[in-house]
Write a structure and sequence with these properties.
- The protein has about 240 residues and is of the alpha/beta class.
- It folds into two domains: about 170 residues, Vaccinia Virus protein VP39 (Rossmann fold), CATH 3.40.50; about 60 residues, N-terminal domain of TfIIb (Single Sheet).
- The chain is about 30% helix and about 35% strand.
- The chain has seven helices and eleven strands.
- The strands form two sheets. A seven-stranded mixed beta sheet has the order 3-2-1-4-5-11-10, sandwiched between helices. It has a four-stranded antiparallel beta sheet with strand order 6-7-8-9, covered by helices on one side.
- A hairpin with an 8-residue loop joins strand 10 and strand 11.
- The longest helix is centred in the first third of the chain and has 14 residues.
- About 35% of the residues are buried.
Length: about 240
C-alpha cells in the first residue's frame, strides 16, 4: 500500500505514536500562526501532534487527515485532555472545507506523501482556494537519502507499559533519483505473551527540489514569500501566499 489513508490504519495507527522518532514543537507553529493569523488549518494532522497542543493554547486551529483511524485517536486524545477540536477526514488534494484560513501549515514533511507532481499541484491549488487574502502557508520539505544498508533489517523497539514489545524496521527499499521517490517497506510488530502481530506496509515518499516546488507553487497561483536560496538544499521550508493579492 502507498496511499497514506491506507498506510496509517490498524496496527500501524496504534503503534505510530510510541514508535515515532520525533515530535513536533508546538511553539514553532504557534509562532507561525501568531504572525499569519487565525483561523489556522493543519494539513495531515494525524493523531494530533501538534494540533492538540495548539488548541490547548487557545488557538483557533482545525485539522484534516486522510486516515480515519488516526483521526479516531486524535478525537480520543482530545476528549481525554478536555479539548474541543474540529477535524475532517479529507485528502489534501481534495480539500473542500466550509472555512477559509489565514494560516495553513504542515507539521513536518507530510507534503512528500503526495505520490506524484500532479497530486502535489492539485493539493497546492486546493490549499490556495482555502487561503484568505493576506494569509500564508508553511510547507516543510526534504530530500530523503537512501536508508543505509546496515539499517535495512534493523528494528527500533519500545517496551510498552503493558509489557509488550513494539517495533518497526525497514525490510526493503527502492530509491529512485529520476522519479524522485523512495519506496520503503516497513514492518511493524507487537510482541506479547500471546504471540506476534505484524504488518508490512509500503511507505512512499515523493520529493521536490526547491526549484521544482517553486514551479509547482507558481502553477497553483501561489507566490513564494520565503524559501531556500539556491537549489541544493536537502531540508527546507517554503512560506507561500496567494499570488496577485
Amino acid at each position: 500500500m502507498t496511499d497514506p489513508a491506507d498506510f496509517y490504519t490498524g496496527l500501524v495507527a496504534e503503534l505510530y505514536a510510541p514508535l515515532r522518532s520525533f515530535t513536533s514543537d508546538p511553539a514553532e507553529y504557534a509562532a507561525f500562526i501568531a504572525s499569519s493569523g487565525e483561523p489556522a488549518l493543519e494539513l495531515g494532522c494525524g493523531d494530533g501532534d501538534p494540533l492538540l497542543d495548539l488548541r490547548a493554547l487557545g488557538l483557533d486551529v482545525d485539522g484534516i487527515d486522510s486516515s480515519a483511524d488516526m483521526l479516531d485517536r486524535l478525537r480520543a486524545a482530545a476528549t481525554a485532555r478536555g479539548l474541543s477540536v474540529t477535524v475532517h477526514q479529507q485528502r489534501m488534494e481534495d480539500l473542500d472545507l466550509p472555512r477559509r484560513y489565514r494560516s495553513i501549515f504542515l507539521a513536518g514533511a507530510t507534503f512528500t506523501l503526495l505520490a506524484t507532481d500532479d497530486l502535489a499541484l492539485r493539493a497546492l491549488r486546493a490549499i490556495r482556494a482555502h487561503l484568505t487574502d493576506g494569509g500564508s502557508v508553511l510547507v516543510p520539505l526534504f530530500v530523503p537519502a537512501p536508508t543505509p544498508a546496515d539499517q535495512v533489517g534493523a528494528f527500533r523497539s519500545v517496551v510498552t507499559d503493558g509489557g509488550a514489545t513494539i517495533r518497526v524496521g525497514v525490510v526493503d527499499e527502492d530509491w529512485d533519483a529520476a522519479a524522485r521517490t523512495r519506496r520503503t517497506t516497513l514492518r511493524y510488530e507487537r510482541v506479547t505473551e500471546a504471540g506476534v502481530e505484524h504488518v508490512e506496509r509500503v511507505w512512499l515518499l515523493h520529493w521536490h527540489t526547491p526549484a521544482g516546488f517553486r514551479a509547482l507553487a507558481a502553477q497553483a497561483g501561489l507566490a513564494v514569500l520565503d524559501g531556500p536560496d539556491g537549489d541544493d538544499a536537502e531540508e527546507f521550508t517554503f512560506r507561500l501566499g496567494r499570488a496577485g493579492t
